[in-house]
Write a structure and sequence with these properties.
Chain A: It comes from Eiseniibacteriota bacterium. The complex is a heterodimer. By secondary structure, chain A is an alpha/beta fold. Chain A has eleven helices and 18 strands. Chain A has one domain (about 5-340): TIM Barrel (Alpha-Beta Barrel), CATH 3.20.20.70. The chains are: A alpha/beta, B alpha/beta. The complex binds flavin-adenine dinucleotide, flavin mononucleotide (FMN) and FE2/S2 (inorganic) cluster.
Amino acid sequence: MTKRPGLAERSDPTGPRIGSVDLMVRIGPLTLLNPVLTASGTFGYGDEYAHVVDLGTLGGVITKTVTVKPRPGNPPTRIAETPAGMLNSIGLENVGLERFRREKLPKLRELGAAVVASLGGETPRELARLMEALGDEPGIGGFEINFSCPNVSKGGARYWAVPRRLERTLLMLRPLTRRALIAKLSPDVTSVADLAKACEQGGADAVTAVNTFVGMSVDLDHVRNRLNRSTGGLSGPAIKPLALARCWEAAAAVAIPVIGSGGIMSGRDALEFIGVGAAAVQVGTLSFVRPRGAGEVLDEMVAWLVERGVRRLDDWRGSLAPRPDEACAPRPSRGTLAERLRPRRR
Amino acid sequence: MSALALQENAARALAWRQVTARVARHQDYGAGHRWLDLVLPAVAPRPLAGQFVQLLLEAPSPVLLPRPMSVAAAATRGDRLVLGFLYAPVGSGTRTLAALEPGDHVEVLSPLGRGYPLEIKGTPVLVAGGRGVAPLLFAADALARSGRRCEFFFGARDRGRLVGLEEARRRLDRMGSRLHLATDDGSRGFHGTVMDLLDRVALRLPQPLVIHACGPHSMLKAVARWGTGHGVPAYVAMESIMACGTGVCRGCPLPRSSQARAAYGRSGDGVPPSLLGNRDYAMCCTEGPVFAAEDLDWERVE
Ligand SMILES: Cc1cc2nc3c(=O)[nH]c(=O)nc-3n(C[C@H](O)[C@H](O)[C@H](O)COP(=O)(O)OP(=O)(O)OC[C@H]3O[C@@H](n4cnc5c(N)ncnc54)[C@H](O)[C@@H]3O)c2cc1C
Ligand SMILES: Cc1cc2nc3c(=O)[nH]c(=O)nc-3n(C[C@H](O)[C@H](O)[C@H](O)COP(=O)(O)O)c2cc1C
Ligand code: FES
């Protein structure tokens, strides 16, 4: 299959109009063909889906968080479905640095997609070790540091929810790679904005807002917790409004790009995140429901933009949350894009 | 498992597709169970006995995630695949499924996991508990097609819960296979559990035996214990709560036995290792749902 270029051609003769949209996104040194990435822990290492998804059409694939040592993960039960969402308590099960390098890295180089490796650590030192080992490896376009896992007893979301710790850690990691450095934040904090600012200070190229929300589910009939560790991370449509607010808050606080994540199930959802200021988005739980979901999100998004005559995604970005920054400032002459697109009242 | 079977499994691990299926037949099947026939475009390979699918209800649906379901029958009709399912409406997902009518659509992720190693030599002893009969109906069919007889043990709480009994009988009659029934209350067949029954008649069956079982985990635990005690290999179809069904979410772990932990990593089988479990846990959706009973730690299975 051919790769989709940054300019996604849409030529549906039955559609309202033929057009194209510039979807290119820059995250520091990393250029993405389009803004739709698959979220860490929900798309394996990409090759598991390669037979059903044309990976080259995605903006990028973020791999399962890797830690220095392999982790067996938490005991069962690890999943509980909740209204419009799911709780997970996987516990960062992963193959560890050694096997990641040996078995996964060669495959990642052949995926035909931009690859962002997710790294997790219990201490700044552990993250530095991972970055020393992987920072210059060809085939990895960027690193997303998982500062936000809710399901581990050490080095989880709570440990990293300290602005100064984040800033210092990123300052330590920054010199170890020339690739994109992305910090993934937890929503369960007093101020996502403060954490995002700390990441910016520490030299991150972008922040991801947000990881799962801590949640709990009990089985009243059997009088027990549904998950092994009592709490888990909530994802899916249930968290979208919460994630959207956190994403907007982060985007308003920093000048670096913000990658939106949380409950994105359609192209319209993705457009909402980009509308409040996200540079790109991640699709997580949707992949479990529809393995081709990320591609469908992209197609729907493009169709919506084309229908409204928006030719550059940058024009739409931030339209729903103008901020005093040149790229997204409202254009006084024509009104904001959101105003132009709004249907007229009678 | 033979080297060939391992190879085939490896190739099959990444052969699943998600397709839209049409409900062709949907009817009551006794004791509150339902039988569902789905017609799929044959872009995905035909499942093997013991493999499962993920059924996703079309929007608007009261549930988010797809529901795992064993394949109870499979037939090819031209360029279509007809898959049969036997299920119990127990919660909001399966109850909504139960309301679908012929002509309605569902999304199907198929085929998933690994099936029963029916090619193993010996008399196949199929042991079914309650609705666990579903994949074994398929197994009985597959054995009959390859001209092999089997011994089919079927147990339930009472006679009403021997769901699909007539279906089982039809499939077994073709090869002259035998049906052995047990009910906890003695309302049909042997009075006791299906394992008590097997224990009684096992010596009279043509040796050696190979067990293929499905049912509640408590029954499968008894199967595992019996198999170990009598030196009979046993393969059991397990269940776990699942999200993806394809090995990426890591949500469906089952604890490995110490023996399986020790052997872990020694026999790579071509499947991307990240799809399988780790040293401590096997993933039910990719390594299973059918496991060699000795590979699981039954003290820790829930
Ligand atoms: C490999 C496999 C094969 C299966 N084959 C069959 C079959 O042939 N016939 C049949 O009737 N049932 C089968 N099941 C069980 C079936 O998937 C559950 O009954 C169903 O998911 C319940 O969904 P619900 O929405 O109706 O119930 P709810 O109670 O509303 O479900 C809530 C959550 O729990 C999960 N869940 C509940 N019970 C089970 C269970 N026993 N196993 C796994 N997840 C569960 C659901 O997936 C869901 O995420 C199988 C399960 C697995 C894993
Ligand atoms: C089963 C599961 C496993 C996850 N594993 C990881 C992980 O290893 N690292 C990480 O940074 N995020 C992980 N996440 C979080 C997702 O990447 C994503 O940020 C979150 O699920 C919210 O997006 P969604 O609602 O689209 O799923 C996981 C989520 C789920 C549901
Ligand atoms: S259900 Fe996702 S790994 Fe098994």
